[in-house]
Amino acid sequence: MTAVEVAGVGLHRFGRFDGSTTADLGVVAVRRALAEADVGRGGFQAAFCGTAYGGVAAGHRVLGALALTGPPIVDVEAGCASGAAALALGADAIRGGQHDCVLVLGVEKMPRGVIRSSFFPPWREQAGLAATPAYFALRAQRLLADAGLTKADLAAVCVKNRAHGAHNADAMFRSPVTAEAVLGSRVVCEPLHLWMLCSPNEGAAAVVLRRVDAAGGTDGRHPRLAAATLRSHLPGNVLGEDSPLAGLVDDTITAPTTLAATDAYEAAGLGPADLDVVECQDTDAARELLAWQELGLCEPGEQAKHLAAGDHTLGGRLPVNPSGGLLSKGEPLGASALAQVVELVRQLRGEAGARQVEGAAIGLAHTVGRGANASAVILTR
Amino acid sequence: MRTVPAANIAAVGVAAPTLRLAAADVAAAWGRAGGRGQCAVCAHDEDTLTLAWEAADTAVAAAGLTTDAVDGLWWGTSRPPFAEGPSHAHLAAALGLPAGVSGALTAGSAHAGMEALLGAWDAVAAGTASAALVVVSDAVLPGTGTSMEVAAGAAAGAVVLTTADGPATLTARSTHSRPVLDRYRGDGEDETRDSYDARLFREQVFLPALAEVGAKLPGADGQRWSLPDPDGRLGRAAARVLGTAAPASAAARAELGDTGAAAALVGGAAALAEPGPLTLVGMGGGRTTGVVVEVSAPVPGADAVGARLERGRAAPYAEVLRARRRLVPAGEQVEMAVPPGSAMFVRGGPEVLGLLGGRCVACGTLNVPPSIHPTCVACGADKFDLVPLARRGRVHTFVVNHAMPAPFEAPLPLAVLDLDDGGRVMLQVVGTGAELAVGTPVELVLRRYAVERGVPVYGWKARAVDGEGTG
């Protein structure tokens, strides 16, 4: 199969930027990525832009501002996996022989406050059943019961990720927190407190993908994109990310995260035991703990043991979310999946500074969100 | 006075709202001393419809009937949830009665409860209904700071009337009419006025009317009887002046306050457990009606009346004011995305109110809600039988939401439920959710979800039940 490398990455840090438009943020990320890859006008043959709230032709606005239009630009929406969906399309376009070099970007300026999603049938909002954090909390509550976890374990995830994020200049929240402070923040949706939920915010990320055997070649220092997969939920999967009303009373249906990860492991010829570093979806603290088991990082119900052992903390066996995760960075839907890729690239290049995972050679990035959509991306050095 | 053929009571049920307001709390809030007694108040999601449903559902179950056997519904209430609109149809749908159900909604005064009882009696006697459900309910919205605020309560009662032999028989009736202004509410007015002088009416209107009605009521022995008691003194005055026994309705009056259109039946319901004559008296709008019930054997459901009426909790005055929407937060109220008159409501209303699921003809899987599942999630087939879902189940998972915009009340508990028939639904939960856990057994009850653009919107909520008996 044709090999694809990540020739350059760029990021506009995550936060709130009232003076900037969506395109302004995207311009910063794209300029940086193109500069790293040493790609200029005419150097890429297509662009794929992930965004959920960016409006019509968000990618065109970014590339228009850079005077880089002309190639096909495809805007992609896949909820929290929007950026990963764009990445998968770009990689497939290269593997299919259509292009040699593709620009993938993700941009977002999230509305303030609780995410109002047009995904839900309107009558569910009428009935008070559709507010987004309540939905996360329903899943969290069930996980606590199934996995024997407590709110203290959820707080421990926040402590871990915020400690990681303290070393990330691109994160929105860069101060470490204590478990007491997390549990002392106000209850939003029992069992989730405010600090256990990521903050919807703004940002942009960009990735240049290039065929390894293309003209100009590669000097071998760029990480390879070993897999980029996207899956939706199977019918009847109820507490994945789909409407919990849509249910079979059958909790054995494979979750979309597991579907995407299984596809990615197979495509890369790797497994969870091969991973050195993971970036996963921590929309809320419980979501990360669920991802551990859905990605095969641990057996169901063993999260507490791994938390206590520090297995997934920097310096541990398999660091998860060394970037600080969404709990530190916040979540601009279109950009967040690509920002994970940016983090993995930096880790695999050994450029992650104080949060560097020693000897990181294989990394996995995971998103899951509204749709349901789930993605898994594997990078190798 | 002509006699009419008798009708028999097959079963009885009652319902009381969640909140109890102490008169002393109200007095203290207004800087007054004293205040005795209490009254029952609807929680923010209860009203005359939800109370009527609970009483009727209880009565039908006590009668051992299935709802498709009920062919008439008579509902009397001074305050239908829709001043002009589908009140009767909503109650019928929530109860799961056949679409061809006959009957009437009687309203317009606190006498409406007796009018419903008489209407159903006539229909059963005439043979146009074979199993008639009579429901009476009331929930006054009194003016804030008025004496009625601590006197007027809320409750519902229901009986199933049949021509078949029953443990109790309606044997005699008598009505007295006089155009006087007692309880009053004008068109478009929210609050019920108690503009009349209590003592004047007690002495000059109510007691004479009771005497007139009683004199024309064969079998009314003045021993066991019930009546509405607007100021809490009428029952005692009647006993003293007319020489009757103290009314059997005194216990319900003390627990609930004056329940208006529901008072005659709710106050007399417990007495249906003991053989002997019982006289039910209802009043309102200048009319007074007495009905004699000859009880020959304990009426099913009567033994549960006392405990049902006491099912309530003390609520501070501020909570009552919030529940009655007298105390509302400033600022924006979030409108629902779908107006109640929209096509989505017209199409989706029945499945919400009837709590229906789509059972796949091919594989038997329940798809919920059916309108957003045109294709079976299990097998992909597209033929369904619409079926009512089980009203009991267990909590699969839950959340207590503290982040709801107005007009929702926070904390708002939500739960995903695994119903006993295999359906899975997500619903609001009654109360604060403090008693919830994964696996908690629940029953479903009708509640008002919202008043959207002035239109009440109803649906089902889960309520934790004691014990493990969910089969």
Description:
- The complex is a heterodimer of chains A (381) and B (471).
- Chain A has 381 residues and is α/β, with parallel strands linked by helices.
- Chain A has one domain: Thiolase/Chalcone synthase (Peroxisomal Thiolase, Chain A, domain 1, 3-Layer(aba) Sandwich), CATH 3.40.47.
- Chain A has twelve helices and eleven strands.
- Chain A has helices at 22-37, 58-65, 82-95, 122-126, 132-147, 151-165, 179-184, 256-268, 285-294, 303-309, 325-329, 333-349, and strands at residues 4-15, 46-50, 73-76, 101-109, 187-190, 192-193, 202-211, 224-232, 277-279, 362-369, 373-380.
- In chain A, strands 1-7-4-2-3 form a five-stranded mixed beta sheet, with helices on both faces.
- In chain A, α1 (22-37) crosses α2 (58-65) and α3 packs across α12 (333-349).
- Residues 240-247 of chain A have low confidence and may be disordered.
- By secondary structure, chain B is an alpha+beta fold.
- Chain B has two domains: 7-323, Thiolase/Chalcone synthase (Peroxisomal Thiolase, Chain A, domain 1, 3-Layer(aba) Sandwich); 343-464, no CATH class.
- Chain B has helices spanning 23-29, 48-62, 87-95, 112-126, 198-215, 234-242, 250-256, 263-269, 305-309, 317-323, 343-353, and strands at residues 7-15, 19-22, 38-41, 72-77, 102-106, 131-139, 154-162, 168-177, 225-226, 276-284, 287-295, 313-314, 356-360, 366-367, 384-388, 392-401, 412-419, 424-429, 441-452, 455-464.
- In chain B, β10 and β11 (287-295) form a beta hairpin.
- In chain B, α2 (48-62) packs parallel to α3 (87-95).
- The longest helix of chain B is centred in the middle third of the chain and has 18 residues, at 198-215.
- The model of chain B is unreliable at 467-471 (pLDDT under 50).
- Chain A binds chain B through residues 114, 121-123, 125-129, 131, 133-134, 137-142, 145, 186-191, 235-236, 238-239, 243-249, and chain B through 336-338, 344-345, 348, 352, 365, 368-369, 372-373, 377-378, 380, 396-404, 408, 411-412, 414, 416, 418, 422-428, 433, 437-439, 449-450, 452, 457, 459.
